[in-house]
Each structure stands twice: as C-alpha cells, then as structure tokens.
Design a protein that fits this description.
243 residues; mainly beta; Acetylcholine Binding Protein, Chain: A; 7-stranded mixed beta sheet; 3 helices; 15% helix
Length: 243
C-alpha cells in the first residue's frame, strides 16, 4: 500500500472537484457534438461584460457561501485561510430548451468567457491584482442558473488586543464580501447559509480553533451616493486560543 501526502491546496482541489462532480452526476447526457453546438449557440452573441438582468428586469441576485478548507494562521492581526467561495446566480442569456442538444442539462464553460460578479473580500490585507480564478469552469444549467466555485487564499485584517486574548481566550474575525461597483439596484447579494461551511473537514491549526461562525447580510450606504444601498455579506468567526 502506498500513502500519498497531499498539501492543503491540493487537498482542497480534490474536495472541490469531488463536490462539483457529485452535483453534476447524471446531468451530462449529450454527445460531444451536442455540447459543441450548444457552446457555440450560447456564446455567439454573448457579452460577458454586461451583467444579466434579474427577474422582471430587476437586479441579478447572487447567492454567496464561504467554505474554509484550511486554517493557516492568525498572527500580527492577520487571519490567513484557504477558502473557496460558492456563488450562484441566474443568467437568462444562457438558457436552452431541455429537449434540445441531446437532452443536455448542464454545460461546463470557462469562467473567463461568461459574466461573473465582481464580489471582493473588502477587508483583505492584500492588494487586488484581478480575479485569479479566470480559467476555472462555471457550471451552467439549462434554466440559466450558474454555479462558480473559485479557490481563494484569504488574508483578512483581524485586529485584536493580546491582553483580551489572554483574558477571554477568544477573538472574533470577520470576512466581508460585496460587489465593488454594483448597488442593490443592479446586483443583490444574499448568503446561502447562516454559517461558514466545511469546518468539520477543515485542516486545523495547532494554536487556534474556530468554535462558532455566523453569516449576516448588511446594507451599507456611503456619503458619495447615499441614495444607493450596497449589500454586504459578513462572515464572523469566533476563534479560540488553544495554547
């Protein structure tokens, strides 16, 4: 018997791949030619730089979930996690009749070819250099629903006082996600779950333990444009010091 050691990043890749394979089992039914024709038809006049319209011409609704795969560190007021974001929305430009194209129910399309929400980790300590997951596939369903699960290496500011750590033995850290440009008039964001996901399978940290999480939707306004509302999804992690 051979034992293969996987680092956290490789392990996360196989976990994500397994999840995506699980949710698409039995949904890929057509032939290669069916998928080729469908791919060409869907993207022929598609404009990826334009956000899709929501129901009744309203905002596109994006559902957001945070999965934590590894707790790397909490030091110097910076929380470092390996995560993936599970995002889903409906793009009515990517619909097709279920009875066409060999009864194909889903199609895998490189994410760089379709619109994706400009949702960013707003309290990141790292400079934004663009979306690193542009070559990952999205899963497109026949009804226009799109699922995208980009892998992230998240570093967030988590200010805490060492005296309070030794007194209370816990610290709260938040990860805040929102659209960079869109208000709720054109893009509305909601959390899929009320907590952070995957903690039972997370690679733990020997110094810290995540003991509680919650997800909240906040509505923010800014002095520049106080008639606009900007939805924010905030994930709060309660972290206990182990030693």
């Amino acid at each position: 018997m051979y034992l293969v050691s996987l680092d956290a990043g490789t392990n996360m890749y196989f976990k994500v791949t397994g999840i995506l394979l699980t949710i698409t089992v039995g949904l890929v039914t057509g032939s290669f030619l069916d998928r080729k024709d469908l791919f060409k038809i869907l993207l022929r006049d598609y404009q990826k730089d334009l956000a899709p319209a929501g129901k009744g011409g309203g905002p596109v609704v994006v559902y957001h979930s945070l999965f934590v795969n590894a707790f790397e560190s909490l030091e110097n007021n910076v929380l470092t996690l390996q995560t993936w974001e599970w995002m889903s929305w409906n793009d009515n430009r990517l619909q097709w009749d279920l009875g066409s194209y060999g009864d194909e129910k889903t199609l895998f399309i490189p994410s760089k070819l379709v619109w994706q929400p400009d949702i960013l980790l707003m309290n990141s300590v790292e400079q934004f250099t663009g979306f690193a997951a542009g070559d990952l596939n999205v899963i497109v369903y026949h009804d226009g629903n799109v699922t995208f699960v980009p892998i992230r290496h998240s570093k967030t500011l988590c200010p805490f006082n060492m005296e309070s750590i030794y007194r209370e033995n816990e610290v709260n850290c938040s990860l805040k996600y929102m659209s960079w440009a869109h208000s709720s008039k054109t893009l509305d964001t909601h959390s899929t779950f009320q907590t952070v996901q995957n903690l039972s399978q997370m690679t733990p940290n020997r110094l810290w333990e995540i003991v509680d999480t919650k997800a909240e939707r906040n509505e923010l306004t800014f002095s520049c444009c106080n008639t606009e509302v900007y939805p924010e999804i905030e994930y709060t992690l309660t972290i206990k010091r182990l030693r």
